[in-house]
Amino acid sequence: MSxxxxxxxxxxxxxxxxxxxxxxxxxxxDEGDRNQSPxxxxxxxxxxxxxxxxxxxxxxxKFDPNEYTLNDWMSLGLSEKxxxxxxxxxxHTVYSNEALKKxxxxxxxxYALIKDSTIYPDPTNAAISFxxxxxxxxxxxxxxxxxxxxxxxxxxxxxxxxxxxxxxIKYRKELGGFYKKEQLLEVWKMREETYExxxxxxxxxxxHIQKIHLNSISFEAxxxxxxxxxxxxxxIVKMRNQLGSFDTISSIKxxxxxxxxxxxxxxxxxxxx
Length: 273
Hints:
Layout: H1 2-15, E1 20-23, H2 38-49, E2 54-57, H3 70-75, H4 80-89, H5 97-101, H6 108-114, H7 123-137, E3 144-145, H8 151-155, H9 162-175, H10 192-201, E4 202-203, E5 212-213, H11 219-223, H12 230-243, H13 260-266, E6 270-271
Parallel strand pairs: 3-4, 5-6
Antiparallel strand pairs: 1-2
């Protein structure tokens, strides 16, 4: 009995449509399961219903990914959330499978089924068309810059309400600015779906970062930075007092509390001036 249950999902995949990839998570029953109480069996059946099955399909014909709609992507087996994020990436035309594959929400299994059916516009012709008719054919895309965007502009983004807008602005102020978008994941209670919207809708200019001046900053101000602990701030100030001043930023690595990983994290915020 146990062997048949283990083998069954493989037979389903074997005899199913070759243009569909099915990823299943089977429940394997052993001899002990038959002796479970009705209560436990009911709980197991309820748990089994929650198991997800993902299936991806090949497109019926050749297609240009840049022209696919939300429903088109969902017809290939992608979720509405995945399809929405893909459409945001495709605001900027892609011209190859290599570019398409870089869209991180596109599963490898789905990409494998569509890669041989894709067609793309000629980038050379697109460039010429843009130069000649750009004022008529293209609408300028307005991007919000992460280090200067205000809370009202953040709220205008889908899924970013007043709470997240306030938390992003607060954390940006504490850091002195963002130097990479991944730092948004450090914002208090940041959700994955909100993060996905932010990384596709925002651009980043790290030149807006407020620097920490190592040779003049006070202990109180230094310890308040999210990446600098009380002990680290104390160690840096003590070294500065002993040296008179730091000749190089990397001098702070002489502290036993600052390893290379910590140093690389705080380095974008440090300055000698």
